[in-house]
């Protein structure tokens, strides 16, 4: 079903079309854009509240800027649906995040209006500054460079590294701080308090409004915005910002806060700011979910990415299960951590801005002094955990596999080199699904297994996750546990916990001719494949290895002693991953076998449902079965 855009929106195929409308029509365009987003996301899914909150900003930016010549960078990009719709992707928008369709994030290869590929947060200021410095170097004086960054993303260290540089850069850079007081969960930290203070300060806002009024009056007499600003700037600084404005102190001219939902005012301000050279920041106050009551008034975290819903009633569809359902791995983590923490007062929980996504919110609610959301700050989360560990505490640091890429140095330098007891729980390991390549947890096996002291493990089901978490509390060093997005396989998952000897795998099924060695949840696909193959008289053995590091050497001696045909299966990159570790072991121990490795190839795998991506890479149940069939059919030519 293709959703029809409103009357004006249907005429906008590019920002040039938008510019043909009068300023008076912008409110209607915003309204139509907002409804088009609501109509589409309710039926096809995706991120929601963030895009609704920047509708006016999006329209104003494309109305004033000369995109794509002027460079517009969206931070994270989950709020860029309006941008996509106004820049030629309106008629493809129903394919958003669907296999083969457009990406849910800006992507350079998708459109010339997508100046920078995003998905991970806090990169926009650095990228836009790079573009601005390049323009300066090339003598492109009038080119605008704009980074739109949320208050949540502003908590990421990179944003501050970039502002520190921007403040001495003398470039044509505008940072737009889209402040809605929300990350996915409510935003946290001292910066949030600071932004609230500045937004609600009565004195500050009174003077600020007078300044804008003055600006309007001066403009009428032909005085340039730049002259006005420099005249009043000193006065504002001494009268209002005596205690110093954080951004001003970094040499960024600060404007705002302004109402981010007044499209006409935004157009005026952006046009004025375009004429003011140098690095500057515009603080816009917006409401996440603006214009859709259930999202605006309801639970904003739920409406960040609600899934499909009835746009009229606001009811979010939930499939009514006909059979008892297995829980999500994240919930097994969340509940198990509380269970462990009740027994062991050294256990602490840490998440960088994903309390709901990781289910650490369960512990944050029950034990608020022992569980921390540290903001979008993966590097800090790891070193903060290391600090806790030096004092004899046992931090469980839960970070999505792909976000952990940010904190790799901290894992090595601050944790592994000092052999500190930090438990890394890597959620969303393997394919993330509709979020696509920026979010796939493809590399963690490879990047963790080469780190000295690190234990690398993955549970095949809920019981194993619980046992591995328990085991980790007893190991005096870094211990990582990876598990995927979504559900496990055990409806009755609250099993008593027991320690697993570190490096011990298990036999799932005895068999002949071919041995399947799997790591983690993906092993359940091998179970399904074996059931199918049994119907054809094929009977491969199946081993759940559980650990990549250390490998279960006893089990491997058994496997390579008995089998000359071996298949490894992992939902991680093939290069340097689990299969590679098995091959290395085989060579080192003088075995010969025909080994087929299934996993993520050396390629960018786009977005889609997890099963579609597994199929594409040949390790869905059918792909595994095919690999067994193929190997069973060939003669082993070695010793
Ligand atoms: C490095 C990194 N960590 C975590 C995330 C997950 N994440 C995506 S959006 C988001 C919240 C961003 O908040 P904000 O920038 O204020 O945008 P809003 O959704 O409020 O518009 C988070 C934590 C991410 N994309 N990148
Ligand atoms: C934009 C972003 O990075 C998050 O919103 C991400 O999409 C969350 O993923 P999960 O839905 O797997 O928590
Ligand atoms: Mg926000």
UniProtKB/TrEMBL annotation:
Pathway: Metabolic intermediate biosynthesis; 1-deoxy-D-xylulose 5-phosphate biosynthesis; 1-deoxy-D-xylulose 5-phosphate from D-glyceraldehyde 3-phosphate and pyruvate: step 1/1. Its EC number is 2.2.1.7. It comes from the Bacteria. GO terms for molecular function: 1-deoxy-D-xylulose-5-phosphate synthase activity; magnesium ion binding; thiamine pyrophosphate binding. Pfam families: DXP_synthase_N, Transket_pyr, Transketolase_C. One of its GO terms (biological process) is terpenoid biosynthetic process. Residues 327-491 form the Transketolase-like pyrimidine-binding domain. It catalyses: D-glyceraldehyde 3-phosphate + pyruvate + H(+) = 1-deoxy-D-xylulose 5-phosphate + CO2. Its cofactor is Mg(2+); thiamine diphosphate. Catalyzes the acyloin condensation reaction between C atoms 2 and 3 of pyruvate and glyceraldehyde 3-phosphate to yield 1-deoxy-D-xylulose-5-phosphate (DXP). NCBIfam families: dxs, PRK05444.2-2. This is 1-deoxy-D-xylulose-5-phosphate synthase. It comes from Cecembia rubra. The lineage of its organism: Bacteria, Pseudomonadati, Bacteroidota, Cytophagia, Cytophagales.
């Amino acid at each position: 079903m293709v959703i029809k855009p409103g009357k004006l929106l249907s005429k906008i195929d590019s920002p040039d079309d938008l510019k043909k409308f009068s300023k008076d029509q912008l409110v209607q365009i915003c309204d139509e854009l907002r409804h088009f987003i609501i109509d589409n996301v309710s039926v096809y899914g995706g991120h929601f509240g963030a895009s609704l909150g920047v509708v006016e900003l999006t329209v104003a930016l494309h109305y004033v800027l000369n995109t794509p010549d002027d460079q517009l960078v969206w931070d994270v990009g989950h709020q860029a649906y309006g941008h996509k719709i106004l820049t030629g992707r309106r008629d493809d928008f129903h394919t958003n995040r669907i296999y083969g369709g457009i990406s849910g994030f800006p992507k350079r290869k998708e459109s010339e209006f997508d100046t920078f590929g995003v998905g991970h947060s806090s990169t926009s200021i650095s990228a836009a500054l790079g573009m601005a410095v390049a323009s300066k170097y090339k003598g492109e004086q009038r080119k605008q460079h704009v980074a739109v960054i949320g208050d949540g993303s502003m908590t990421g260290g990179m944003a501050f590294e970039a502002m520190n540089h921007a403040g001495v850069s003398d470039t044509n850079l505008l940072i737009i701080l889209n402040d809605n007081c929300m990350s996915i969960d409510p935003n946290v930290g001292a910066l949030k308090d600071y932004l609230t203070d500045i937004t609600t300060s009565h004195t500050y806002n009174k003077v600020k409004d007078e300044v804008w009024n003055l600006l309007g009056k001066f403009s009428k007499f032909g005085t340039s915005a730049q002259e006005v600003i420099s005249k009043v700037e000193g006065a504002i600084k001494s009268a209002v910002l005596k205690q110093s404005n954080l951004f001003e102190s970094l040499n960024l001219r600060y404007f705002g806060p302004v109402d981010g939902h007044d499209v006409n005012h935004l157009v005026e301000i952006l046009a004025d700011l375009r004429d003011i050279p140098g690095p500057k920041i515009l603080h816009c106050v917006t409401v996440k979910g603006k214009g859709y009551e259930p999202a605006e008034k309801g639970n904003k975290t739920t409406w960040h990415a609600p899934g499909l819903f009835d746009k009229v009633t606001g009811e979010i569809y939930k499939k009514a299960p006909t059979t008892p359902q297995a829980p999500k791995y994240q919930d097994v983590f969340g509940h198990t951590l509380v269970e462990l923490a009740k027994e062991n007062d050294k256990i602490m929980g840490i998440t960088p801005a994903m309390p709901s996504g990781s289910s650490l919110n369960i512990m944050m609610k029950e034990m608020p002094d022992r569980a921390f959301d540290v903001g979008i700050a993966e590097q800090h989360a790891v070193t903060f955990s290391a600090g806790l560990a030096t004092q004899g505490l046992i931090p469980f640091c839960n970070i999505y596999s792909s976000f952990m890429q940010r904190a790799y140095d901290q894992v090595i330098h601050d944790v592994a080199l000092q052999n500190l007891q930090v438990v890394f729980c890597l959620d969303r390991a393997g394919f993330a699904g509709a979020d696509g390549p920026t979010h796939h947890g493809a590399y963690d096996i490879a990047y963790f297994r080469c780190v000295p002291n690190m234990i690398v493990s993955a549970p095949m089901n809920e019981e194993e996750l619980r046992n591995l978490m328990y085991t980790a509390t007893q190991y005096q060093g870094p211990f990582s546990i990876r598990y995927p997005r979504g559900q496990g396989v055990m409806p009755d998952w609250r099993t008593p916990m027991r320690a697993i000897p570190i490096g011990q795998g298990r036999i799932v099924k005895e068999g002949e001719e071919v041995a399947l060695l799997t790591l983690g949840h993906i092993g359940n696909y091998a179970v399904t494949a074996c059931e199918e193959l049994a119907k054809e008289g094929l009977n491969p053995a199946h081993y759940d290895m559980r650990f990549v590091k250390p490998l279960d050497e006893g089990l491997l001696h058994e496997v390579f002693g008995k089998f000359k045909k071996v298949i490894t299966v992992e939902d991680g990159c093939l290069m340097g991953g689990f299969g590679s570790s098995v091959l290395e072991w085989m060579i080192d121990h003088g075995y010969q076998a025909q080994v087929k490795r299934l996993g993520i190839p050396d390629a960018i795998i786009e977005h889609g449902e997890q099963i579609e991506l597994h199929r594409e890479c040949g390790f869905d149940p059918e792909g595994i079965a095919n690999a067994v069939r193929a190997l069973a059919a060939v003669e082993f030519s070695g010793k």
